[in-house]
Amino acid sequence: MKAFVFQGPGQTSWQDVPDPGIKDAADVIVRVDAVTICGTDLHIIKGDVPDVAPGTVLGHEAVGEVMETGGDVRTVRPGDRVLVSCIAACGRCRFCRENRYGQCRGGGGWVLGHLVDGTQAEYVRVPFADLSVHPLPSQVDNDDAVLLADIFPTAYEVGVVNGHVGPGDTLVVVGAGPIGLAVIATARLYTPGRIIAVDLAASRLTAARAVGADATVSADEEPERLVEDLTDGLGADVVVEAVGVPESFEMCTRMVRPGGRVANVGVHGKPAALHLEDLWIKDVTITTGLVDTHSTPLLLRMVAAGKLPASGLVTHRFELGQMEEAYDVFSRAADTGALKVVLGGPRHDAVDRPAEPLSAPRV
Ligand SMILES: NC(=O)c1ccc[n+]([C@@H]2O[C@H](COP(=O)([O-])OP(=O)(O)OC[C@H]3O[C@@H](n4cnc5c(N)ncnc54)[C@H](O)[C@@H]3O)[C@@H](O)[C@H]2O)c1
Ligand SMILES: [Zn+2]
Ligand SMILES: [Zn+2]
């Protein structure tokens, strides 16, 4: 088969590799029908994730059809259309039993496209299939589903749920990339009073408005002042960090009100200062997290009901064989306007979309 292989920092190729086969009785083999590229894949290619060995097939998000199942697989059969989650779960370790699949100690967690061959390929072997793939209802099309492999559960769990976004809250989302936009879209399910998006790129702020931000401000134009003005000087109830650089994390901790919450989603490569000399007296809660994907079934039901137009973030489509072109477009997002790129064959044709207009605006 063909697959997108990491060959070492700065080196990748779309090339022939052996077809994957069942290695463990809990495995399935999935034919990849839709796949996307994550910012994390770009980090891997830069050499920021040294655990990824040269020769690894990248990708941790996909939709496809089950071709083969190991003898212990109970929840899916050949022919089923499934979502392949970015997180696999052994289901037996302490963390899996607490729904913290991201922390799995039994061989799961983030393994696809990291520690084992991933989804940017014609076929993928998925370990621990019973808890790592989700059968897809016919109402959910491939473009919506593939965004539920990583970015929507990440945004929802690590941003909205950890931040305890509630009715009437003032929510500030710093960083309006795919993750920040998905935070805005899923936060709206809780009816916050006001959502303010902060980014450096005008195109991202426009996208933030389209998914439901009430106000947008450039990170260069004193966003702290705006938040202060809009909250009578108090600060925001919830601030979500969706960038991953020290400046933005530190800004989040300055924008939060006493007793408020800062939910960090960004992946940080450098230390960020924690100003306890200012924060100790403010009763603030700061959370961190790796996605667990425990919310994927809930998000799938929301998509099936027409309440979460996830695929509004898809800006570009490619055939699977155009992987290198898709990477080029995705990695030059500032020039190309790319949010999410989806690669794959024809869209799922059994889709029965609700006739009612979707409740949230599309990007
Ligand atoms: N915790 C997790 O489990 C998890 C999972 C997936 C991704 N992530 C992380 O979430 C973060 C966001 O992901 P993404 O795919 O949306 O990334 P992205 O790079 O597409 O988006 C980041 C956005 O931040 C903006 N930005 C850059 N510097 C800024 C600043 N100083 N202030 C305000 N905005 C600024 C950029 O213009 C961009 O729009 C990344 O760090 C990613 O690695 C975390
Ligand atoms: Zn990812
Ligand atoms: Zn486990």
Describe the structure.
By secondary structure, the protein is α/β, with parallel strands linked by helices. The protein folds into 2 domains: 202 residues, Alpha-Beta Complex (Quinone Oxidoreductase, Chain A, domain 1); 136 residues, 3-Layer(aba) Sandwich (Rossmann fold), CATH 3.40.50.720. It is built from 13 helices and 16 strands. α5 packs across α6. It is globular and about 60 Å long. The two termini are 35 Å apart. One zinc ion (ZN) binds next to loops. Belongs to the zinc-containing alcohol dehydrogenase family. InterPro entries: ADH-like_C, ADH-like_N, ADH_Zn_CS, ER, GroES-like_sf, NAD(P)-bd_dom_sf. Its cofactor is Zn(2+). Keywords: Metal-binding, Oxidoreductase, Zinc.
List keywords for this structure.
Quinone Oxidoreductase, Chain A, domain 1; 363 residues; 7-stranded mixed sheet; single chain; 26% helix; 2 domains; 6-stranded parallel sheet; binds zinc ion; alpha/beta; binds nicotinamide-adenine-dinucleotide; 16 strands
